[in-house]
């Protein structure tokens, strides 16, 4: 798959180099330095020159590069590059030029373990840390014990977790984080609405626990006799799981069973395009009574439960390019005109559910000889709402089973947010 692996600094100097096959020479690094690092116009992470392909990822002030002359799977190459970045951060905190120079011996040792003839091998951090360590030298007996554990992890089903994990307080945190993508026409009809979601988990559990939790997935609820609940259920268009999840159980009864890795990991990623609960409704009235004036009336309403609050609500309302000044009045928060960006930025630090507020503004325009038609870009709305999901997805239960039958504390938190993807035309 990979013929050569390099790490460059931002000047193009080679910090780490490893050739795995004879089809490339070390001078291939000069090609990357000239064609990519020295060329500010290059933006693509994949560059193909002749029969040689360069896959690179920039992290802080270093370039991580994989070179191949075969028709490699690009997604697999980038997955390995990002996995290398994660392993490096786990070992020495931050991947930058100084860290690479200080830990180059360790990096070469890691490369010997995670790549064999250019093919990725075991990249699980917990397994690597058992036999690649910069700490004190272990005794012969400890090395034997660790070697037996490595054999289990290399051949067993739980290579992502050690068996000797212990915590004084056993806790599991589940965060359901959703990003709402909306494009609404000026008439108020929804042109596009979907949700990109991920379920992040932090497992601080002793031993090798078996975790199980269920979602209000549509296929689960339709098996029930209560059809009214099924109509309000969530339908997921597609979902991806961490390798620890037993996919057979999910296909049969929509329950998610797994032995979690130790610490934080992404358990699931999903997408939904049906029955989206839009957290905000925006009514716009923008008129140009004269060639030198534009009047705005923007009405914002929170469509979620009054017990909840939205934080950091920011509206970016476009203005014509020849705007000279804007007079804004708001009922909630603060609004100001930013000439450099040609927008009115309306910031509301906190907004309660079911609350309504209005912005009125008058923009004064400069007279120009050749007036171009105003394209009217859409209004962008950013926000974050805790304990609310736009898709309606909920965690119905979370159970932890372990041989010692210890008591565990479970926490579930929901958050819906938008960063420039919630747009309304006017």
From TrEMBL:
PANTHER family under this entry? AP COMPLEX SUBUNIT MU
Record's InterPro entries?
Answer: Adaptor_comp_med_subunit, AP2_Mu_C_sf, AP2_Mu_N, AP_mu_sigma_su, Clathrin_mu, Clathrin_mu_CS, Longin-like_dom_sf, MHD
Q: Does the keyword Cell membrane apply?
A: yes
Query: How the protein sits in the membrane?
Result: Peripheral membrane protein
Q: Name one GO cellular component term.
A: plasma membrane
Is Cell membrane among the key words of this record?
Answer: yes
SUPFAM superfamilies per UniProt: Second domain of Mu2 adaptin subunit (ap50) of ap2 adaptor, SNARE-like
Question: Per the database record, which ranges form the MHD domain?
Answer: 169-425
| Location of this chain's protein in the cell | Cell membrane; Membrane, Coated pit
Q: Which organism is it from?
A: Naganishia liquefaciens
Alphabetical UniProt keywords: Cell membrane, Coated pit, Endocytosis, Membrane, Protein transport, Transport
Q: Name one GO biological process term.
A: intracellular protein transport
Protein origin, superkingdom: Eukaryota
Q: From the Swiss-Prot or TrEMBL record, give the protein name.
A: MHD domain-containing protein
Q: Which family does it belong to?
A: Belongs to the adaptor complexes medium subunit family.
Specify one Pfam family. Answer: Adap_comp_sub
Gene3D superfamilies (UniProt xref): 3.30.450.60, Mu homology domain, subdomain B (2.60.40.1170)
């Amino acid at each position: 798959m990979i013929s050569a692996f390099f790490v460059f600094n931002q000047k193009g100097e080679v910090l780490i180099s490893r050739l795995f096959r004879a089809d490339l020479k070390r001078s291939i690094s000069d090609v990357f330095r000239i064609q990519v690092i020295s060329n500010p116009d290059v933006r693509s992470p994949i560059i193909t020159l002749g029969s040689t392909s360069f896959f690179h990822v920039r992290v802080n002030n270093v370039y991580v590069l994989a070179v191949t002359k075969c028709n490699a799977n690009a997604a697999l190459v980038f997955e390995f590059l990002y996995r290398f970045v994660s392993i490096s951060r786990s070992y020495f905190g931050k991947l930058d030029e100084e860290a690479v120079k200080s830990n180059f011996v360790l990096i070469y040792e890691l490369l010997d373990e995670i790549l064999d003839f250019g093919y990725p091998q075991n990249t699980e951090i917990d397994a690597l840390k058992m036999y690649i360590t910069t700490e004190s030298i272990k005794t012969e007996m400890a090395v034997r014990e660790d070697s037996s554990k490595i054999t289990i992890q290399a051949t067993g089903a739980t290579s992502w977790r050690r068996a000797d994990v212990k915590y004084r307080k056993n806790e599991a945190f589940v965060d359901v984080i959703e990003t709402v993508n909306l494009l609404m026409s000026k008439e108020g009809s929804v042109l596009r609405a979907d949700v990109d979601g991920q379920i992040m988990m932090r497992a601080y559990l002793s031993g090798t626990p078996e975790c199980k939790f269920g979602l209000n997935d549509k296929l689960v609820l339709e098996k029930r006799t209560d059809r009214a609940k099924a109509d309000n259920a969530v339908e997921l268009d597609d979902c991806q799981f961490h390798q620890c999840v037993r996919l057979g159980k999910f296909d049969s009864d929509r329950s998610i069973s797994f032995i979690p890795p130790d610490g934080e990991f992404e358990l699931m990623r999903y997408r939904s395009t049906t029955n989206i609960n839009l957290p905000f409704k925006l009514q716009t009235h923008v008129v140009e009574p004269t060639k030198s004036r534009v009047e705005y009336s923007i009405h914002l309403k929170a469509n979620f439960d009054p017990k909840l609050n939205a934080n950091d609500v920011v509206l970016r309302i476009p203005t014509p390019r020849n705007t000279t000044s804007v007079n804004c009045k708001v009922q909630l928060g603060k609004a100001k005109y930013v000439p450099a960006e040609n927008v009115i930025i309306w910031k509301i630090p906190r907004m309660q559910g079911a609350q309504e507020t209005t912005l009125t503004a008058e923009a004064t325009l400069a007279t120009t000889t050749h007036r171009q038609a105003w394209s009217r870009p859409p209004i962008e709305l950013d926000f974050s709402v805790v304990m609310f999901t736009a898709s309606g997805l909920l965690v119905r239960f979370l159970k932890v089973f372990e041989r010692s039958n210890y008591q565990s504390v479970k926490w579930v938190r929901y958050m819906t947010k938008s960063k420039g993807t919630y747009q309304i035309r006017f």
